[in-house]
Protein backbone atom coordinates (compact mmCIF):
# COMPACT_ATOMS: atom_id res chain seq x y z
CA UNK A 1 0.00 0.00 0.00
CA UNK A 2 2.82 2.40 0.86
CA UNK A 3 4.44 1.75 -2.52
CA UNK A 4 1.22 2.66 -4.34
CA UNK A 5 1.37 6.11 -2.72
CA UNK A 6 5.05 6.67 -3.52
CA UNK A 7 6.22 9.28 -6.02
CA UNK A 8 7.97 6.61 -8.05
CA UNK A 9 4.75 4.58 -8.48
CA UNK A 10 2.67 7.62 -9.39
CA UNK A 11 5.22 8.85 -11.93
CA UNK A 12 5.39 5.35 -13.47
CA UNK A 13 1.59 5.07 -13.67
CA UNK A 14 1.05 8.54 -15.15
CA UNK A 15 3.96 8.06 -17.59
CA UNK A 16 2.52 4.73 -18.77
CA UNK A 17 -0.99 6.13 -19.17
CA UNK A 18 0.21 9.16 -21.11
CA UNK A 19 2.39 6.93 -23.28
CA UNK A 20 -0.55 4.66 -24.17
CA UNK A 21 -2.70 7.64 -25.15
CA UNK A 22 0.16 9.23 -27.08
CA UNK A 23 0.98 6.06 -28.99
CA UNK A 24 -2.70 5.65 -29.88
CA UNK A 25 -3.07 9.22 -31.10
CA UNK A 26 0.20 9.18 -33.07
CA UNK A 27 -0.69 5.82 -34.61
CA UNK A 28 -4.13 7.04 -35.65
CA UNK A 29 -2.76 10.29 -37.07
CA UNK A 30 -0.01 8.48 -38.99
CA UNK A 31 -2.44 5.86 -40.30
CA UNK A 32 -4.91 8.48 -41.52
CA UNK A 33 -2.16 10.73 -42.88
CA UNK A 34 -0.29 7.99 -44.74
CA UNK A 35 -3.56 6.57 -46.08
CA UNK A 36 -4.47 10.02 -47.36
CA UNK A 37 -1.06 10.43 -49.01
CA UNK A 38 -1.29 7.00 -50.65
CA UNK A 39 -4.85 7.75 -51.81
CA UNK A 40 -3.84 11.12 -53.25
CA UNK A 41 -0.89 9.54 -55.04
CA UNK A 42 -3.08 6.74 -56.41
CA UNK A 43 -5.64 9.28 -57.63
CA UNK A 44 -2.95 11.47 -59.18
CA UNK A 45 -1.20 8.58 -60.95
CA UNK A 46 -4.52 7.22 -62.24
CA UNK A 47 -5.56 10.62 -63.55
CA UNK A 48 -2.20 11.07 -65.27
CA UNK A 49 -2.41 7.61 -66.85
CA UNK A 50 -5.95 8.17 -68.12
CA UNK A 51 -5.08 11.65 -69.42
CA UNK A 52 -1.99 10.27 -71.16
CA UNK A 53 -4.01 7.51 -72.84
CA UNK A 54 -6.62 10.09 -73.85
CA UNK A 55 -3.90 12.23 -75.41
CA UNK A 56 -2.61 9.24 -77.40
CA UNK A 57 -6.12 8.53 -78.69
CA UNK A 58 -6.54 12.24 -79.60
CA UNK A 59 -3.28 12.15 -81.56
CA UNK A 60 -4.40 9.02 -83.39
CA UNK A 61 -7.79 10.51 -84.26
CA UNK A 62 -6.08 13.71 -85.46
CA UNK A 63 -3.87 11.64 -87.75
CA UNK A 64 -6.93 9.89 -89.16
CA UNK A 65 -8.62 13.25 -89.72
CA UNK A 66 -5.57 14.43 -91.66
CA UNK A 67 -5.83 11.36 -93.92
CA UNK A 68 -9.58 11.90 -94.35
CA UNK A 69 -9.06 15.58 -95.16
CA UNK A 70 -6.30 14.80 -97.67
CA UNK A 71 -8.56 12.34 -99.44
CA UNK A 72 -11.65 14.59 -99.45
CA UNK A 73 -9.71 17.63 -100.72
CA UNK A 74 -7.67 15.73 -103.29
CA UNK A 75 -8.35 17.23 -106.76
CA UNK A 76 -8.35 13.71 -108.25
CA UNK A 77 -11.12 12.65 -105.85
CA UNK A 78 -13.19 15.71 -106.73
CA UNK A 79 -12.58 15.10 -110.45
CA UNK A 80 -13.54 11.42 -110.14
CA UNK A 81 -16.90 12.31 -108.55
CA UNK A 82 -17.55 15.20 -110.96
CA UNK A 83 -16.59 13.47 -114.21
CA UNK A 84 -15.90 9.76 -113.61
CA UNK A 85 -13.26 8.23 -115.89
CA UNK A 86 -11.33 4.99 -115.73
CA UNK A 87 -8.01 6.82 -115.26
CA UNK A 88 -9.47 9.07 -112.60
CA UNK A 89 -10.91 6.09 -110.71
CA UNK A 90 -7.53 4.36 -110.86
CA UNK A 91 -5.78 7.44 -109.42
CA UNK A 92 -8.26 7.62 -106.54
CA UNK A 93 -7.86 3.89 -105.80
CA UNK A 94 -4.07 4.33 -105.76
CA UNK A 95 -4.43 7.15 -103.25
CA UNK A 96 -6.76 4.92 -101.17
CA UNK A 97 -4.08 2.20 -101.17
CA UNK A 98 -1.56 4.79 -99.93
CA UNK A 99 -3.89 5.71 -97.07
CA UNK A 100 -4.34 2.04 -96.16
CA UNK A 101 -0.59 1.40 -96.19
CA UNK A 102 0.02 4.37 -93.85
CA UNK A 103 -1.99 2.77 -91.02
CA UNK A 104 -2.57 -0.95 -90.56
CA UNK A 105 -5.62 -0.25 -88.38
CA UNK A 106 -7.57 1.33 -91.28
CA UNK A 107 -9.67 -1.53 -92.54
CA UNK A 108 -11.39 0.12 -95.48
CA UNK A 109 -11.69 3.44 -97.29
CA UNK A 110 -14.80 4.25 -99.32
CA UNK A 111 -15.58 7.26 -101.49
CA UNK A 112 -19.35 7.59 -102.15
CA UNK A 113 -20.87 10.19 -104.47
CA UNK A 114 -24.24 11.78 -103.78
CA UNK A 115 -25.82 9.65 -106.48
CA UNK A 116 -24.46 6.35 -105.05
CA UNK A 117 -21.28 5.98 -107.14
CA UNK A 118 -18.64 4.14 -105.01
CA UNK A 119 -14.82 3.86 -105.07
CA UNK A 120 -13.25 1.61 -102.41
CA UNK A 121 -10.61 -0.96 -101.61
CA UNK A 122 -13.53 -3.30 -100.68
CA UNK A 123 -14.45 -5.45 -103.68
CA UNK A 124 -17.72 -6.86 -102.31
CA UNK A 125 -19.62 -4.09 -100.63
CA UNK A 126 -22.79 -4.63 -98.63
CA UNK A 127 -23.59 -1.07 -97.66
CA UNK A 128 -26.77 0.95 -97.64
CA UNK A 129 -26.78 3.33 -100.60
CA UNK A 130 -29.22 4.69 -103.19
CA UNK A 131 -29.33 6.99 -106.19
CA UNK A 132 -30.14 9.83 -103.79
CA UNK A 133 -27.73 9.51 -100.84
CA UNK A 134 -29.42 12.46 -99.10
CA UNK A 135 -31.95 9.92 -97.81
CA UNK A 136 -29.28 7.88 -96.00
CA UNK A 137 -28.81 8.96 -92.33
CA UNK A 138 -25.06 8.23 -92.16
CA UNK A 139 -24.52 10.24 -95.35
CA UNK A 140 -26.52 13.23 -94.02
CA UNK A 141 -24.59 13.12 -90.71
CA UNK A 142 -21.30 13.37 -92.60
CA UNK A 143 -22.26 16.40 -94.71
CA UNK A 144 -23.85 18.20 -91.75
CA UNK A 145 -20.61 18.05 -89.71
CA UNK A 146 -18.08 20.88 -89.95
CA UNK A 147 -15.29 18.39 -89.25
CA UNK A 148 -14.80 14.66 -89.86
CA UNK A 149 -17.65 12.81 -88.13
CA UNK A 150 -16.97 9.85 -85.80
CA UNK A 151 -19.33 7.01 -84.97
CA UNK A 152 -19.50 4.67 -82.01
CA UNK A 153 -18.35 1.07 -82.36
CA UNK A 154 -20.53 -0.85 -84.83
CA UNK A 155 -20.58 -3.95 -86.99
CA UNK A 156 -19.04 -3.28 -90.39
CA UNK A 157 -22.04 -3.79 -92.63
CA UNK A 158 -20.21 -3.56 -95.91
CA UNK A 159 -17.44 -6.07 -95.19
CA UNK A 160 -17.59 -9.75 -95.95
CA UNK A 161 -16.68 -10.44 -92.30
CA UNK A 162 -19.82 -9.57 -90.33
CA UNK A 163 -18.23 -10.09 -86.89
CA UNK A 164 -15.62 -7.32 -87.11
CA UNK A 165 -16.27 -4.25 -84.98
CA UNK A 166 -15.14 -0.94 -86.46
CA UNK A 167 -15.27 2.80 -85.79
CA UNK A 168 -16.12 4.92 -88.83
CA UNK A 169 -14.95 8.42 -89.71
CA UNK A 170 -16.75 10.28 -92.49
CA UNK A 171 -16.14 13.65 -94.15
CA UNK A 172 -17.97 15.54 -96.87
CA UNK A 173 -16.42 16.06 -100.31
CA UNK A 174 -17.19 19.43 -101.91
CA UNK A 175 -16.37 21.00 -105.24
CA UNK A 176 -14.65 24.37 -105.61
CA UNK A 177 -18.01 26.13 -105.23
CA UNK A 178 -18.79 24.37 -101.95
CA UNK A 179 -21.44 22.05 -103.43
CA UNK A 180 -21.74 18.52 -102.07
CA UNK A 181 -20.20 15.81 -104.25
CA UNK A 182 -20.04 12.89 -101.86
CA UNK A 183 -18.53 11.49 -98.68
CA UNK A 184 -15.23 9.85 -97.68
CA UNK A 185 -15.69 6.99 -95.17
CA UNK A 186 -12.80 5.44 -93.20
CA UNK A 187 -13.39 2.29 -91.15
CA UNK A 188 -10.87 1.84 -88.33
CA UNK A 189 -10.45 -1.51 -86.64
CA UNK A 190 -11.53 -1.72 -83.02
CA UNK A 191 -7.96 -2.84 -82.23
CA UNK A 192 -6.65 0.53 -83.46
CA UNK A 193 -8.17 2.32 -80.45
CA UNK A 194 -7.64 -0.56 -78.03
CA UNK A 195 -3.85 -0.53 -78.55
CA UNK A 196 -3.64 2.89 -76.87
CA UNK A 197 -5.66 1.80 -73.82
CA UNK A 198 -4.29 -1.68 -73.10
CA UNK A 199 -1.49 -0.40 -70.86
CA UNK A 200 -3.82 1.39 -68.43
CA UNK A 201 -3.33 0.02 -64.88
CA UNK A 202 -6.72 0.44 -63.21
CA UNK A 203 -6.70 -2.38 -60.65
CA UNK A 204 -8.07 -5.91 -60.73
CA UNK A 205 -11.69 -4.84 -61.29
CA UNK A 206 -10.97 -1.52 -63.01
CA UNK A 207 -11.74 -0.70 -66.64
CA UNK A 208 -11.81 2.15 -69.14
CA UNK A 209 -14.32 3.00 -71.85
CA UNK A 210 -15.03 5.69 -74.43
CA UNK A 211 -18.54 7.07 -74.91
CA UNK A 212 -19.75 9.71 -77.35
CA UNK A 213 -22.08 12.66 -76.74
CA UNK A 214 -25.12 10.61 -77.83
CA UNK A 215 -24.42 7.83 -75.33
CA UNK A 216 -22.98 5.46 -77.92
CA UNK A 217 -20.28 3.09 -76.68
CA UNK A 218 -17.11 3.70 -78.71
CA UNK A 219 -14.75 1.44 -76.78
CA UNK A 220 -14.83 -1.12 -73.99
CA UNK A 221 -12.48 -4.07 -73.49
CA UNK A 222 -15.53 -6.34 -73.30
CA UNK A 223 -17.35 -6.27 -76.70
CA UNK A 224 -20.54 -7.57 -75.08
CA UNK A 225 -21.19 -4.00 -73.90
CA UNK A 226 -21.91 -3.05 -77.53
CA UNK A 227 -24.97 -5.34 -77.71
CA UNK A 228 -26.15 -5.80 -74.10
CA UNK A 229 -28.64 -3.04 -73.26
CA UNK A 230 -28.29 -3.52 -69.48
CA UNK A 231 -24.54 -3.18 -69.64
CA UNK A 232 -24.85 -0.12 -71.85
CA UNK A 233 -27.17 1.49 -69.30
CA UNK A 234 -24.60 0.78 -66.57
CA UNK A 235 -21.84 2.42 -68.65
CA UNK A 236 -23.97 5.48 -69.35
CA UNK A 237 -24.76 5.79 -65.63
CA UNK A 238 -21.03 5.80 -64.81
CA UNK A 239 -20.36 8.36 -67.53
CA UNK A 240 -23.02 10.68 -66.08
CA UNK A 241 -21.89 10.26 -62.44
CA UNK A 242 -19.61 12.74 -60.67
CA UNK A 243 -15.91 11.98 -61.05
CA UNK A 244 -13.61 11.50 -58.07
CA UNK A 245 -13.02 8.98 -55.29
CA UNK A 246 -16.08 6.97 -54.14
CA UNK A 247 -15.40 5.65 -50.60
CA UNK A 248 -18.40 3.24 -50.58
CA UNK A 249 -17.14 1.20 -53.52
CA UNK A 250 -13.45 2.16 -53.07
CA UNK A 251 -13.33 3.28 -56.70
CA UNK A 252 -11.95 6.27 -58.55
CA UNK A 253 -13.79 7.66 -61.57
CA UNK A 254 -11.95 10.09 -63.83
CA UNK A 255 -13.12 11.56 -67.14
CA UNK A 256 -11.19 13.32 -69.87
CA UNK A 257 -12.80 14.94 -72.92
CA UNK A 258 -10.98 14.04 -76.15
CA UNK A 259 -10.33 17.23 -78.11
CA UNK A 260 -11.84 17.75 -81.57
CA UNK A 261 -14.27 14.85 -80.98
CA UNK A 262 -17.51 14.25 -79.11
CA UNK A 263 -15.85 11.37 -77.23
CA UNK A 264 -15.17 11.15 -73.50
CA UNK A 265 -12.63 8.71 -72.06
CA UNK A 266 -13.77 7.41 -68.64
CA UNK A 267 -11.47 5.43 -66.34
CA UNK A 268 -12.72 3.41 -63.34
CA UNK A 269 -9.89 2.39 -60.97
CA UNK A 270 -10.76 -0.24 -58.33
CA UNK A 271 -7.78 0.87 -56.16
CA UNK A 272 -7.00 -2.68 -55.00
CA UNK A 273 -3.49 -1.72 -53.91
CA UNK A 274 -4.79 1.05 -51.62
CA UNK A 275 -6.69 -1.37 -49.39
CA UNK A 276 -3.68 -3.70 -49.21
CA UNK A 277 -1.44 -0.83 -48.11
CA UNK A 278 -3.98 0.24 -45.46
CA UNK A 279 -4.14 -3.28 -44.01
CA UNK A 280 -0.37 -3.53 -43.92
CA UNK A 281 -0.09 -0.15 -42.22
CA UNK A 282 -2.61 -1.14 -39.57
CA UNK A 283 -0.75 -4.37 -38.78
CA UNK A 284 2.57 -2.54 -38.58
CA UNK A 285 1.22 0.15 -36.23
CA UNK A 286 -0.34 -2.44 -33.89
CA UNK A 287 2.90 -4.46 -33.65
CA UNK A 288 5.09 -1.39 -33.14
CA UNK A 289 2.64 0.10 -30.61
CA UNK A 290 2.58 -3.06 -28.48
CA UNK A 291 6.37 -3.26 -28.54
CA UNK A 292 6.71 0.36 -27.43
CA UNK A 293 4.14 -0.13 -24.68
CA UNK A 294 6.04 -3.10 -23.21
CA UNK A 295 9.28 -1.12 -23.35
CA UNK A 296 7.67 1.86 -21.58
CA UNK A 297 6.22 -0.32 -18.79
CA UNK A 298 9.66 -1.84 -18.16
CA UNK A 299 11.50 1.51 -18.24
CA UNK A 300 9.04 3.61 -16.19
CA UNK A 301 10.31 2.56 -12.70
CA UNK A 302 13.93 3.35 -13.58
CA UNK A 303 12.87 6.69 -15.00
CA UNK A 304 11.02 7.68 -11.82
CA UNK A 305 13.94 6.62 -9.62
CA UNK A 306 16.37 8.81 -11.56
CA UNK A 307 14.33 12.02 -11.24
CA UNK A 308 15.13 12.97 -7.62
CA UNK A 309 18.83 12.09 -7.62
CA UNK A 310 20.09 15.08 -9.74
CA UNK A 311 18.09 17.58 -7.63
CA UNK A 312 20.24 16.93 -4.57
CA UNK A 313 23.46 17.40 -6.59
CA UNK A 314 22.18 20.73 -7.91
CA UNK A 315 21.43 21.94 -4.36
CA UNK A 316 24.98 21.11 -3.22
CA UNK A 317 26.50 23.03 -6.14
CA UNK A 318 24.40 26.11 -5.31
CA UNK A 319 25.64 26.02 -1.72
CA UNK A 320 29.28 25.99 -2.91
CA UNK A 321 28.65 28.97 -5.22
CA UNK A 322 26.97 30.86 -2.37
CA UNK A 323 30.16 30.45 -0.32
CA UNK A 324 32.16 32.14 -3.13
CA UNK A 325 33.54 29.19 -5.10
CA UNK A 326 33.13 29.54 -8.89
CA UNK A 327 34.90 26.26 -9.71
CA UNK A 328 31.67 24.23 -9.61
CA UNK A 329 29.82 22.25 -12.26
CA UNK A 330 26.71 20.04 -12.22
CA UNK A 331 26.42 16.94 -14.44
CA UNK A 332 23.43 17.13 -16.78
CA UNK A 333 21.57 13.95 -15.81
CA UNK A 334 17.99 13.05 -15.01
CA UNK A 335 14.82 14.21 -16.70
CA UNK A 336 14.77 17.03 -19.23
CA UNK A 337 13.64 19.67 -16.76
CA UNK A 338 16.46 18.78 -14.30
CA UNK A 339 18.95 18.72 -17.17
CA UNK A 340 17.73 22.18 -18.16
CA UNK A 341 18.23 23.47 -14.63
CA UNK A 342 21.73 21.99 -14.52
CA UNK A 343 22.58 23.48 -17.91
CA UNK A 344 21.33 26.94 -16.94
CA UNK A 345 23.24 26.77 -13.64
CA UNK A 346 26.46 25.79 -15.44
CA UNK A 347 25.93 28.55 -18.01
CA UNK A 348 25.35 31.06 -15.21
CA UNK A 349 28.63 30.06 -13.51
CA UNK A 350 30.50 30.30 -16.83
CA UNK A 351 28.93 33.68 -17.59
CA UNK A 352 29.98 35.05 -14.19
CA UNK A 353 33.52 33.81 -14.77
CA UNK A 354 33.51 35.18 -18.33
CA UNK A 355 32.33 38.62 -17.21
CA UNK A 356 35.05 38.80 -14.60
CA UNK A 357 37.67 37.77 -17.15
CA UNK A 358 36.22 40.18 -19.74
CA UNK A 359 36.62 43.11 -17.37
CA UNK A 360 40.27 42.20 -16.90
CA UNK A 361 40.78 41.60 -20.64
CA UNK A 362 39.19 44.90 -21.64
CA UNK A 363 41.47 46.80 -19.31
CA UNK A 364 44.47 45.15 -20.98
CA UNK A 365 42.99 45.56 -24.47
CA UNK A 366 42.42 49.29 -24.02
CA UNK A 367 46.10 49.83 -23.37
CA UNK A 368 46.98 47.55 -26.30
CA UNK A 369 44.64 49.33 -28.70
CA UNK A 370 46.13 52.70 -27.75
CA UNK A 371 49.51 51.41 -28.93
CA UNK A 372 47.91 49.88 -32.08
CA UNK A 373 46.27 53.19 -32.98
CA UNK A 374 49.55 55.10 -32.56
CA UNK A 375 51.28 52.47 -34.69
CA UNK A 376 48.67 52.73 -37.46
CA UNK A 377 48.97 56.54 -37.53
CA UNK A 378 52.31 56.38 -39.31
CA UNK A 379 52.72 53.64 -41.91
CA UNK A 380 56.39 53.56 -42.89
CA UNK A 381 55.70 51.73 -46.14
CA UNK A 382 53.08 54.26 -47.21
CA UNK A 383 55.33 57.15 -46.16
CA UNK A 384 58.27 55.73 -48.12
CA UNK A 385 56.19 55.30 -51.29
CA UNK A 386 54.73 58.79 -51.00
CA UNK A 387 58.14 60.42 -50.49
CA UNK A 388 59.48 58.39 -53.41
CA UNK A 389 56.63 59.71 -55.56
CA UNK A 390 57.38 63.29 -54.47
CA UNK A 391 61.07 62.83 -55.36
CA UNK A 392 60.06 61.46 -58.73
CA UNK A 393 57.86 64.54 -59.35
CA UNK A 394 60.67 66.86 -58.29
CA UNK A 395 63.08 65.20 -60.69
CA UNK A 396 60.66 65.99 -63.50
CA UNK A 397 60.26 69.60 -62.28
CA UNK A 398 56.54 69.13 -61.51
CA UNK A 399 56.62 71.60 -58.68
CA UNK A 400 52.85 72.11 -58.53
CA UNK A 401 52.27 68.39 -58.03
CA UNK A 402 55.06 68.25 -55.47
CA UNK A 403 53.37 71.02 -53.49
CA UNK A 404 49.86 69.52 -53.62
CA UNK A 405 51.09 66.02 -52.77
CA UNK A 406 53.21 67.30 -49.87
CA UNK A 407 50.28 69.30 -48.52
CA UNK A 408 48.04 66.25 -48.81
CA UNK A 409 50.61 64.14 -46.96
CA UNK A 410 50.89 66.73 -44.20
CA UNK A 411 47.12 66.98 -43.88
CA UNK A 412 46.88 63.18 -43.84
CA UNK A 413 49.26 62.88 -40.87
CA UNK A 414 47.66 65.84 -39.11
CA UNK A 415 44.28 64.10 -39.25
CA UNK A 416 45.88 60.79 -38.23
CA UNK A 417 47.33 62.31 -35.04
CA UNK A 418 44.25 64.43 -34.23
CA UNK A 419 45.78 65.79 -31.07
CA UNK A 420 46.38 62.31 -29.59
CA UNK A 421 42.65 61.55 -29.35
CA UNK A 422 41.34 58.13 -30.32
CA UNK A 423 38.16 59.61 -31.77
CA UNK A 424 37.35 62.01 -34.57
CA UNK A 425 34.34 63.30 -36.49
CA UNK A 426 32.90 61.79 -39.64
CA UNK A 427 33.90 64.95 -41.53
CA UNK A 428 37.55 64.57 -40.46
CA UNK A 429 37.51 60.82 -41.18
CA UNK A 430 36.20 61.41 -44.73
CA UNK A 431 38.79 64.19 -45.19
CA UNK A 432 41.49 61.80 -43.95
CA UNK A 433 40.49 59.19 -46.56
CA UNK A 434 40.26 61.90 -49.23
CA UNK A 435 43.88 62.98 -48.59
CA UNK A 436 45.00 59.35 -48.68
CA UNK A 437 43.23 58.69 -51.99
CA UNK A 438 44.63 61.91 -53.48
CA UNK A 439 48.18 60.77 -52.68
CA UNK A 440 47.54 57.28 -54.06
CA UNK A 441 45.98 58.81 -57.18
CA UNK A 442 49.17 60.77 -57.75
CA UNK A 443 51.10 57.55 -57.49
CA UNK A 444 48.90 55.24 -59.61
CA UNK A 445 47.59 57.82 -62.11
CA UNK A 446 44.77 56.62 -64.37
CA UNK A 447 44.99 53.17 -62.80
CA UNK A 448 42.98 54.47 -59.81
CA UNK A 449 39.64 56.32 -59.88
CA UNK A 450 37.54 57.11 -56.81
CA UNK A 451 34.22 58.65 -55.80
CA UNK A 452 33.13 59.90 -52.37
CA UNK A 453 29.51 60.49 -51.33
CA UNK A 454 28.38 61.11 -47.76
CA UNK A 455 25.63 62.84 -45.83
CA UNK A 456 26.84 66.27 -44.54
CA UNK A 457 24.26 66.02 -41.74
CA UNK A 458 26.49 63.38 -40.14
CA UNK A 459 29.61 65.59 -40.20
CA UNK A 460 29.83 66.21 -36.45
CA UNK A 461 29.17 62.66 -35.31
CA UNK A 462 32.08 61.34 -33.23
CA UNK A 463 33.53 57.95 -34.19
CA UNK A 464 36.77 56.00 -33.61
CA UNK A 465 39.42 57.41 -35.91
CA UNK A 466 41.23 55.66 -38.77
CA UNK A 467 38.46 53.11 -39.51
CA UNK A 468 38.14 53.80 -43.27
CA UNK A 469 41.76 54.20 -44.38
CA UNK A 470 42.65 50.49 -43.75
CA UNK A 471 39.62 49.42 -45.82
CA UNK A 472 40.60 51.74 -48.69
CA UNK A 473 44.20 50.54 -48.47
CA UNK A 474 43.04 46.91 -48.83
CA UNK A 475 40.80 47.87 -51.77
CA UNK A 476 43.83 49.34 -53.57
CA UNK A 477 46.45 46.69 -52.80
CA UNK A 478 44.22 43.59 -53.00
CA UNK A 479 41.64 44.69 -55.56
CA UNK A 480 42.65 47.53 -57.90
CA UNK A 481 46.39 46.88 -58.14
CA UNK A 482 45.85 43.22 -59.15
CA UNK A 483 43.26 44.16 -61.81
CA UNK A 484 44.04 44.62 -65.47
CA UNK A 485 43.08 48.14 -66.52
CA UNK A 486 41.74 51.01 -64.41
CA UNK A 487 39.76 50.46 -61.21
CA UNK A 488 37.17 52.43 -59.26
CA UNK A 489 36.76 52.82 -55.49
CA UNK A 490 33.50 54.24 -54.07
CA UNK A 491 33.30 55.52 -50.47
CA UNK A 492 29.92 56.36 -48.95
CA UNK A 493 28.43 57.26 -45.57
CA UNK A 494 24.69 57.41 -44.83
CA UNK A 495 22.08 56.76 -42.17
CA UNK A 496 20.19 53.44 -42.34
CA UNK A 497 16.45 52.95 -41.88
CA UNK A 498 16.93 51.81 -38.28
CA UNK A 499 18.91 54.95 -37.36
CA UNK A 500 22.42 53.48 -37.54
CA UNK A 501 25.30 54.93 -39.57
CA UNK A 502 26.77 52.87 -42.41
CA UNK A 503 30.13 53.33 -44.12
CA UNK A 504 30.69 51.52 -47.44
CA UNK A 505 34.00 51.04 -49.28
CA UNK A 506 33.39 49.36 -52.64
CA UNK A 507 35.85 48.47 -55.40
CA UNK A 508 35.55 46.76 -58.77
CA UNK A 509 38.85 44.92 -58.44
CA UNK A 510 39.69 41.24 -58.79
CA UNK A 511 37.67 40.15 -55.73
CA UNK A 512 38.09 36.82 -53.92
CA UNK A 513 36.18 33.86 -52.48
CA UNK A 514 35.45 34.71 -48.80
CA UNK A 515 34.92 31.05 -47.85
CA UNK A 516 38.50 30.21 -48.86
CA UNK A 517 40.03 33.01 -46.78
CA UNK A 518 38.22 32.88 -43.45
CA UNK A 519 40.41 32.49 -40.38
CA UNK A 520 40.37 32.77 -36.62
CA UNK A 521 40.48 36.15 -34.98
CA UNK A 522 42.67 37.24 -32.17
CA UNK A 523 43.02 35.06 -29.08
CA UNK A 524 41.52 32.16 -31.04
CA UNK A 525 38.09 33.88 -31.34
CA UNK A 526 36.22 33.08 -34.59
CA UNK A 527 35.75 35.89 -37.10
CA UNK A 528 33.79 36.29 -40.34
CA UNK A 529 36.42 38.59 -41.89
CA UNK A 530 38.60 37.37 -44.76
CA UNK A 531 42.33 37.50 -44.12
CA UNK A 532 43.20 40.76 -45.86
CA UNK A 533 45.59 43.56 -45.07
CA UNK A 534 47.38 42.06 -42.07
CA UNK A 535 46.52 43.85 -38.82
CA UNK A 536 44.61 46.77 -40.41
CA UNK A 537 41.09 45.42 -40.95
CA UNK A 538 41.14 43.21 -37.86
CA UNK A 539 42.33 46.19 -35.79
CA UNK A 540 39.36 48.21 -37.05
CA UNK A 541 36.90 45.37 -36.40
CA UNK A 542 38.21 44.75 -32.86
CA UNK A 543 38.12 48.45 -31.95
CA UNK A 544 34.54 48.83 -33.23
CA UNK A 545 33.40 45.79 -31.23
CA UNK A 546 35.15 47.17 -28.15
CA UNK A 547 33.43 50.57 -28.53
CA UNK A 548 29.95 49.48 -29.62
CA UNK A 549 29.48 45.77 -28.85
CA UNK A 550 29.87 42.39 -30.57
CA UNK A 551 27.12 42.90 -33.17
CA UNK A 552 28.95 45.85 -34.74
CA UNK A 553 32.16 45.85 -36.76
CA UNK A 554 33.40 45.24 -40.31
CA UNK A 555 31.52 43.09 -42.83
CA UNK A 556 33.10 42.12 -46.17
CA UNK A 557 31.37 40.71 -49.26
CA UNK A 558 33.23 39.69 -52.40
CA UNK A 559 33.06 37.60 -55.53
CA UNK A 560 35.99 36.61 -57.72
CA UNK A 561 36.18 38.92 -60.73
CA UNK A 562 33.39 41.23 -59.48
CA UNK A 563 35.07 43.26 -56.75
CA UNK A 564 34.77 43.65 -52.98
CA UNK A 565 32.45 45.63 -50.68
CA UNK A 566 33.44 46.43 -47.09
CA UNK A 567 30.74 47.79 -44.73
CA UNK A 568 30.87 49.28 -41.25
CA UNK A 569 27.69 49.81 -39.23
CA UNK A 570 27.81 51.75 -35.96
CA UNK A 571 24.92 52.85 -33.70
Describe this structure in words.
The chain is of the alpha+beta class and 571 residues long. It contains 13 helices and 20 strands. The protein has helices spanning 7-72, 75-82, 86-102, 137-143, 190-194, 229-240, 272-322, 336-377, 380-395, 399-417, 426-444, 469-480, 535-548; strands at 106-113, 118-120, 149-150, 154-155, 165-174, 180-189, 207-212, 217-220, 244-246, 251-257, 263-269, 423-425, 448-454, 462-464, 487-495, 501-507, 518-520, 526-530, 553-559, 563-570. β19 (553-559) and β20 (563-570) form a beta hairpin. α2 (75-82) crosses α3 (86-102) and α8 crosses α13. The longest helix is centred in the first third of the chain and has 66 residues, at 7-72. It is flat and about 120 Å long. Residues 155-163 and 520-524 have low confidence and may be disordered.
Topology:
Layout: H1 7-72, H2 75-82, H3 86-102, E1 106-113, E2 118-120, H4 137-143, E3 149-150, E4 154-155, E5 165-174, E6 180-189, H5 190-194, E7 207-212, E8 217-220, H6 229-240, E9 244-246, E10 251-257, E11 263-269, H7 272-322, H8 336-377, H9 380-395, H10 399-417, E12 423-425, H11 426-444, E13 448-454, E14 462-464, H12 469-480, E15 487-495, E16 501-507, E17 518-520, E18 526-530, H13 535-548, E19 553-559, E20 563-570
Parallel strand pairs: 13-15
Antiparallel strand pairs: 1-2, 1-6, 3-5, 4-5, 5-6, 7-8, 7-11, 9-10, 10-11, 12-14, 15-16, 16-20, 17-18, 19-20
Amino acid sequence: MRFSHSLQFRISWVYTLISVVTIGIIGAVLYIGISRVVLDESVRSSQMAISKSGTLVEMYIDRLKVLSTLLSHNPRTIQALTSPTQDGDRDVLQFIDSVLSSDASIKSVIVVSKDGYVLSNEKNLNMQRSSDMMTEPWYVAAINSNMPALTSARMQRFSMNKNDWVISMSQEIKDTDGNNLGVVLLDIEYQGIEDYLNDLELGRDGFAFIINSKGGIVYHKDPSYFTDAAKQAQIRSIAQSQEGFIPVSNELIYKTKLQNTDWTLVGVNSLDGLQQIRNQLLRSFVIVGLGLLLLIIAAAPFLAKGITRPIHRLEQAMSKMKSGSLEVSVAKTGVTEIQGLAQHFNEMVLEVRRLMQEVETKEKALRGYELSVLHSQINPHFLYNTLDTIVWMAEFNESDRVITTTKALAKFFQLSLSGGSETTTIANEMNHVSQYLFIQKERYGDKLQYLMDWDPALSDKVIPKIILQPLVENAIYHGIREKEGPGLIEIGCSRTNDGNVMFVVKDDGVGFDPELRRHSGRNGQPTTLPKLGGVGINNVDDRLKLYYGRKYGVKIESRPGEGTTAMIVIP
